[in-house]
Design brief:
Keywords: Membrane, Transmembrane, Transmembrane helix. By secondary structure, this protein is an alpha+beta fold. Helices cover 20% and strands 39% of the residues. The protein has one helix and eight strands. It has an eight-stranded mixed β-sheet, with no helix packed on it. It is rod-shaped. The protein starts with 20 loop residues before the first strand and ends in an 8-residue tail after the last helix.
Length: 153
């Protein structure tokens, strides 16, 4: 990709509610993990900068980008890849995003904060435990009251 193509692709006008899209070459890619305090779950954090160029090949300020997830889906990002991200810059200049379009590899990398299948399995496990407790409570009640339950009379 030429320097001409590595442009800031969107700069919202006044009154436009869309977020700016940044396109550039990845540099300083550093993946790391952060451990959780209470649940002991790890968060995968990808930090990188986008090197951008304006019309005529003039370098634009680099954009610092961060992606946080429990897991990533759809591909990966490496130094030298040309990517496109959409998001607002915070006051410190960091753009936090949930997805990045890797134009070099032709993939869209999505940051996932939770896994639906794990959520469903845990929910079903909770329902099973509640069902077992209900049966135990019914048997204990029957034994305590001496009531045999159903009768045909």
């Amino acid at each position: 990709m030429t320097r001409q193509e590595l442009l800031l692709t969107a700069n919202p006008a006044i009154g436009d509610i869309s977020m700016p899209t940044y396109k550039g070459k990845v540099s300083g890619y550093v993946p790391r993990t952060e451990s959780g305090v209470f649940r002991k779950r790890q968060t995968l954090v990808w930090n990188f900068r986008l090197e951008r160029y304006g019309p005529g090949g003039k370098p634009l300020p680099r954009v610092a980008v961060e992606m946080r997830a429990k897991y990533y889906r759809g591909g990966s990002i490496n130094n030298g890849d040309v990517v496109e991200v959409t998001g607002r810059q915070s006051r410190n200049g960091l753009v936090t995003v949930d997805k990045a379009k890797n134009l070099t590899a032709g993939t869209v990398v999505r940051a996932r904060r939770w896994n639906l299948s794990v959520f469903i399995v845990k929910g079903l496990g909770l329902l099973l435990i509640l069902a077992v407790l209900a049966v135990v409570a019914a048997v204990a009640y029957t034994l305590a009251t001496g009531d045999g339950g159903f009768s045909l009379e």
